[in-house]
Amino acid sequence: MPAVSDRHMISVLRPFVAATGPVLTGLRDADPFRLGRLARRRALELEAAPADAPPEPAPTTRLGRARRAVRSVRTRFLDRLATSRLPGTPRWSVMTPEERDHWWVGRVGRFTSAIASIPGIGGALARRLPVSDILGLAAQGLVVCAIAGEHGVTGRDDQVRLLGTVLFDRDLRPGEYGDPHDDRVERDARDLTGDLGTAGEPAHDGRLKALARAVWRMGRSLFALGEELERRPQGRWWWRTIANLPVVGALGAYKSERSGLKRAARRAARAVRG
């Protein structure tokens, strides 16, 4: 007999899945250094540039040569951005679902690692809970749902079933337990996302902070599943061992969660491909 009933697990996973929409959108579009905007602008410039444009005349003064060198460095940097794998760029639009899976693992993993370094992100409660486990849970759940979406699995209960399989090795049947869009699910999902995306919020720093708080709350909601958490994909045993050592424990915990995140992503990709 499982420690957590199917009904309770589904009641926890449904708001999590409902909350992933705005959170994944925020993670995809988060661009604190405006790199995505620069990349899209440069891509449009390259498309509009005539192929037979005459070369720029060579400067004759030292100042002119210095300015030309600066422009050349800037142009090379923007050209690399224009061909990078960033949402909204031409490269992104032709990426395969598998390539986007890999991108999501990197984006979610880096973001949750950054959250772990923010003092007080979880308030006083964070001092009594294992931060790396909570953020690792949130990361795995978010990546599973992101991969599901990239492969066309977008129904809430379909994603709940996938989370049950990948994270907890459970064969859930959420269709037997009510409506995935009922008022309670929507209310709990809003509690998880909080002020993410509310009107009047600052475009960058405020949104990133709201996103960090939402990810923390989502991980904490999964942490309520207790003993079932031991089933989730774990990192390599040597990283888990290092995580228990002084001084280097933080590095071990980080590497262990990254390893576990990649395992969760591989499980999810295999499941959605059938």
TrEMBL record:
Superkingdom of the source species: Bacteria
**UniProt-annotated stretches for the region Disordered:** 47-66
UniProt name for this protein: Phytoene synthase
Please give the organism.
Actinomycetospora endophytica
